[in-house]
Design a protein that fits this description.
The protein is an all-alpha fold and 63 residues long. Helices cover 54% and strands 0% of the residues. This is Cellular nucleic acid-binding protein.
């Protein structure tokens, strides 16, 4: 998680914003590629940054 957060991933808090969602996804995919994340960790880390308030960092493993 710490390594992922060092890349300063964008947050997407929802609402109707298709362009913002696409931009968010593209930015996060660049980070995943640079980190060589597994598919499982992509889901976990992506879900983390989607949440407005964050979550329990201790439950998320680093790629």
């Amino acid at each position: 998680m710490e390594r992922f957060m060092k890349h300063k991933p964008p947050t997407f808090t929802g609402g109707y914003n298709p362009e913002g969602a696409v931009n968010w996804l593209e930015e996060v995919e660049i980070i995943f590629e640079a980190m060589r994340c597994s598919e499982e960790n992509k889901v976990t880390l992506g879900a983390y940054v989607l949440r407005e308030e964050g979550g329990s960092q201790s439950l998320v493993e680093e790629c």
